[in-house]
Amino acid sequence: xxxxxxxxxxxxxxxxxxxxxxxxxxxxxxxxxxxxxxxxxxxxxxxxxxxxxxxxxxxxxxxxxxxxxxxxxxxxxxxxxxxxxxxxxxxxxxxxxxxxxxxxxxxxxxxxxxxxxxxxxxxxxxxxxxxxxxxxxxxxxxxxxxxxxxxxxxxxxxxxxxxxxxxxxxxxxxxxxxxxxxxxxxxxxxxxxxxxxxxxxxxxxxxxxxxxxxxxxxxxxxxxxxxxxxxxxxxxxxxxxxxxxxxxxxxxxxxxxxxxxxxxxxxxxxxxxxxxxxxxxxxxxxxxxxxxxxxxxxxxxxxxxxxxxxxxxxxxxxxxxxxxxx
Amino acid sequence: xxxxxxxxxxxxxxxxxxxxxxxxxxxxxxxxxxxxxxxxxxxxxxxxxxxxxxxxxxxxxxxxxxxxxxxxxxxxxxxxxxxxxxxxxxxxxxxxxxxxxxxxxxxxxxxxxxxxxxxxxxxxxxxxxxxxxxxxxxxxxxxxxxxxxxxxxxxxxxxxxxxxxxxxxxxxxxxxxxxxxxxxxxxxxxxxxxxxxxxxxxxxxxxxxxxxxxxxxxxxxxxxxxxxxxxxxxxxxxxxxxxxxxxxxxxxxxxxxxxxxxxxxxxxxxxxxxxxxxxxxxxxxxxxxxxxxxxxxxxxxxxxxxxxxxxxxxxxxxxxxxxxxx
Lengths: 326, 326
Ligand SMILES: [Ca+2]
Ligand SMILES: [Ca+2]
Description:
Chains A, B: Keywords: Amino-acid biosynthesis, Hydrolase, Magnesium, Metal-binding, Serine biosynthesis, Signal. Chain A is α/β, with parallel strands linked by helices.
């Protein structure tokens, strides 16, 4: 009898310990150097008493968005918002029928619309992103993002976020990190959906922005979006914006292109342990493969600097079990 | 025997309830309408189930700094930093001996130094606030704030913060609010000490700023402060910066001058319960009395708008038991 009770106790302890075994916080990541580098860094900065321990208030992780948290091919998704808005706004702008680059968009010829380069793109952006209040713009983006579909995949754009990166952000937050987005995308464009999709609230979203003016419309104060690009959150602008807005140097930084190089340099030059990683698009079967010669997310100079800086290359094909949420 | 036990129980309950009586979270505030308005608002926005309940993530309170959280007479304290730095830097700038407004500062004639108005002030600001890295600037401010004394009171500047407002910020944080500073002062000037003095960490500090450039000095990335005022966080700039940086409309706003009017209008125009208050300097005995005609913290238009808007006037003399911490 005593033996049977002892055996049952052993079994009980066995099952309890099974039940208590910590679940893998990064199930969509293959085991290997990349995953290990991430979890090692989190362990050593969060273990009380460790020489590399970092208090919670300094656990700041910054993530680029396009190409780092969601896809960016064949064009940055915000560009599709621009084109869709031009179509929606066309009845109020009969002149667009004969005016480039708008005429090309209305004919469905995006290649010709983009032939005018940055000047044409900014003209289309200003036509669709300004001349309304901040509340009106957010409502417009919210409506678009909840229904518009990607032309190649047919998915909602928010279904083209990277499942492994969602897990990574959750894992970091569970370990006391504050997760920021630091993206070249428009800050108000992103804030319309980042909290729902990524769990990143408006105060933790940093992006490019257009000029905004405080105006009293009768007794109602309004913030009006003006047709002028005020700040481009790319390259050297990223550490500058991190400094202006966060005011602390990040502990971890994640990007995918040369536009993130300065942010990674600024992050990893801090004292004590720092972590910097680049998502490398290597997976033509499940997503895309591109780097040095791409017109979106060009990764050239930063690719060569991964090894000398001891940064981590996240190889989409090798490191991720899956790309998108199901 | 039974009676004695009952009596003891009654006594016990009495003492336990004494011990559990909630301490006044605002002991430096006189009881009255102002204090009541603040605690009523916090109660109704934090009581679960109330129609006026606001979730924690939306409990954002914004505070002006100069004149709202610390004194600002006879000059904004950051101006004293400028004058002290001019004296410290003078040996490296022999030309300042004969060049206004610097020569006047070096002669100790601040009135003449300020006679040149805004142009002279900006010239002195750029000479002392730019041409160094962000790290160097913060170190300089940290050193200054830990030792410099106010010319009239002989106190450390950080001893001239308002004790009732320290209690108010703690009270709000204890009730799930995130407290931001939204000030015309320089953002990096404030960040050097706001966490230690107010408990407000760098990401919750919004201020004016000068242009900053990302520069690689050899292999070391540096953020260099350039001699150009990039953003003045005053008047309409305050709601604009709140929108760009926080991305949510505040629930509560506290200011003391016409420079805060737009921030208070923007805050109180939000849906649901909102709270806006103005610190009115009415106490020449303990601090200062000034409003419509003051050259610092001018309170004129906003003073007339308190009543029609249902805002709260914090009367320093009437509402505060004490002004500074002991
Ligand atoms: Ca990117
Ligand atoms: Ca003020």
